[in-house]
Description:
single chain; alpha+beta; four-stranded mixed sheet
Amino acid sequence: xxxxxxxxxxxxxxxxxxxxxxxxxxxxxxxxxxxxxxxxxxxxxxxxxxxxxxxxxxxxxxxxxxxxxxxxxxxxxxxxxxxxxxxxxxxxxxxxxxxxxxxxxxxxxxxxxxxxxxxxxxxxxxxxxxxxxxxxxxxxxxxxxxxxxxxxxxxxxxxxxxxxxxxxxxxxxxxxxxxxxxxxxxxxxxxxxxxxxxxxxxxxxxxxxxxxxxxxxxxxxxxxxxxxxxxxxxxxxxxxxxxxxxxxxxxxxxxxxxxxxxxxxxxxxxxxxxxxxxxxxxxxxxxxxxxxxxxxxxxxxxxxxxxxxxxxxxxxxxxxxxxxxxxxxxxxxxxxxxxxxxxxxxxxxxxxxxxxxxxxxxxxxxxxxxxxxxxxxxxxxxxxxxxxxxxxxxxxxxxxxxxxxxxxxxxxxxxxx
Length: 417
Ligand code: UD1
C-alpha cells in the first residue's frame, strides 16, 4: 500500500504549473464518442479517472493514442454501447457516457456510477432530462436500459443546476431534431469548456456560463482539436498549501477569473495575491485572519470541491469559521483525520465549526475521498513533524504526480510504494 510521507512546517517557494481540469477532460472524452472520426485533446492530465475514461472508450471500440498530455481519440470504430459494471463503478463521470452513447448508437446500457462517497449521488435529473429528449428508460436488476428512435429537441428545466446532468443533456442533444433549451443549467467553467469542444466539432450551442443554454441539433460533426482548461481545484490546492505553510509561489497555467470567490477568501485571510492573465502569485508571511463564513454553492459560488481545502486553512486562521456544505451531505469525512492532527472542528449535519489558531501536528491519516485527501496533504504541509497519508488511490483520481509538484516548491514529501 503506497503512502505519502510528509515533513511539514516548511515555507514553500518557486513556480508551479497547474494541469488540465479533471472535470473538463472527463465529459470531453465522453463526448468524443459522438463523432465517427479523429479528435485531438490537449492538456489532458494523467489521472486515474482519465485512465478509467480511456478504458471505457476502448471497451466501446474507440482507438486511443496518448502522447504526453495529448490524447487522440478515433471513435470511428465504436461497436458497442454497453458499459460493464466494473467500469461504471470506477468513477462518477461514467454516467456522462450515457448521453454520448445515445447520440451515437440510439441505445445504451449502464449501471449506477461509482465515485467518491459524498452521500447519495442520484442520477434522477440526468434520466428525467434524457426522457424529455424522447429516450425510453427502463431499470432492471440494477441496470439502466435506454433507447431512442429519434432524438428530438425539448425545453428542459433543471430543478437544481447539476453539472453532470447539464453535460449529459448538451451531448445527447447534439443530433436531436430542432432546438433544446436548458434553463437553470450548471454554470461551471467546465460547462463552457464542453460547449467549446462540441462547437469545435460542429455543434451549435450557445449560452454556457449563463442561465440558459441552447443547443440547435446538427446532422454532421467534424474532426477537431481542443485544449482543456486548467484545473481550478488543483490551483486552489496549491494556493491553500502556500497559505497554510507560508512562502511565496507563482502558480502558472490558471484562469484567475474562474477562481474569484476562492481568491477573495485568501485575500481576506491576509495572504497577498497578484494575478496576471494566466498566473496567480501568492505570498503569505503574517498570521492569518478569519475568512468569514464559507458556504458551498453552485458556480459562481464557493466550490464544494474546495471546501475541505479551505477548512484546513480555517484551522490556521484567527477565531471561529463556520462552514456550510450545501451540495453534498457527506463531505466531512476528512474531519476526524484532521482532528487527529490537532484541529478543533465540530460537525453537525451540513455545518462544521472550526476554532482556528491550533498548531497542527503530524499524524498517520487516511484519505477518505479525493478532495478530503488533498486537504490532508495541505494540512500535513503546514503541520509540525511527520505525517503519513494512506489510501492514495482517491487522491490519484484527480492529481497528477502531486508529490513531484509539491517537492518542486520545497515541500518535503515522498511517496513510498
Ligand atoms: C460534478 C463534479 C464534482 C463536483 C460537483 C459539484 C465532475 C466530474 N464532478 O459532479 O467534482 O463536486 O459537480 O460541483 O464534474 N443531484 C441529484 N440528482 C441528479 C444529479 C445530481 O440530486 O441526477 C444532486 C447531487 O446529489 C448533489 C448535487 O445535485 O447533491 C450536485 O451534483 P452535480 O452537480 O450533478 O455533481 P456531479 O456532476 O456529480
